[in-house]
Design a protein that fits this description.
The chain is an all-alpha fold and 125 residues long. The chain is elongated, with a radius of gyration of 19 Å. The protein starts with a helix and ends with a helix.
C-alpha cells in the first residue's frame, strides 16, 4: 500500500513540477509576444492610425496571424496553469475535479472563440 501511495505522490510531484516549468515558459513567451504586439501597435505605428484598416493590413500577413494565435494560446495556457495550481491548493475531492472540469471547459470555449476570429479574418481575405 505504501509503495502505491509513494508512486502516486511521485506522479503528483512530477505533474506539479512540469506545470511550474510550463507556467514560467508561457510567461516568458507572453512577455516577448505582448511586448512585440505593444511595440508594433503603439510605438512604431501612430496611435491615430490604429483602426480597422490597420488590423486588416496586419492580418494580411501570416506572421501576424501566427503571432496573435500564439499570443492567444500562451495566454490561455498561462491562465489555466495558474488557476490549476490555485484549485489544487485550495480544494479537494469532488469539488476539485468539478472546478478543473469547469476551468478546462471555459479555456476551450475562449480558445475556440479566439481562433474563430482569426480563421474568419483569414477566410475573409
Amino acid at each position: 500500500m505504501s509503495a502505491e501511495v509513494s508512486a502516486r505522490q511521485a506522479r503528483g510531484l512530477t505533474r506539479r513540477r512540469t506545470a511550474y516549468v510550463l507556467l514560467r515558459v508561457s510567461g516568458l513567451l507572453l512577455a516577448v509576444l505582448v511586448l512585440g504586439h505593444f511595440t508594433v501597435t503603439h510605438v512604431t505605428t501612430d496611435v491615430a492610425d490604429t483602426d480597422s484598416r490597420f488590423i486588416d493590413a496586419r492580418w494580411a500577413s501570416a506572421l501576424w496571424i501566427t503571432w496573435d494565435g500564439l499570443m492567444l494560446l500562451a495566454t490561455i495556457v498561462h491562465a489555466v496553469l495558474g488557476l490549476w495550481a490555485v484549485i489544487a491548493d485550495y480544494s479537494s475531492g469532488r469539488r476539485r475535479r468539478l472546478l478543473w472540469g469547469a476551468l478546462l471547459t471555459v479555456a476551450a470555449v475562449v480558445f475556440a472563440g479566439g481562433m474563430t476570429v482569426l480563421v474568419i479574418a483569414v477566410a475573409a481575405r
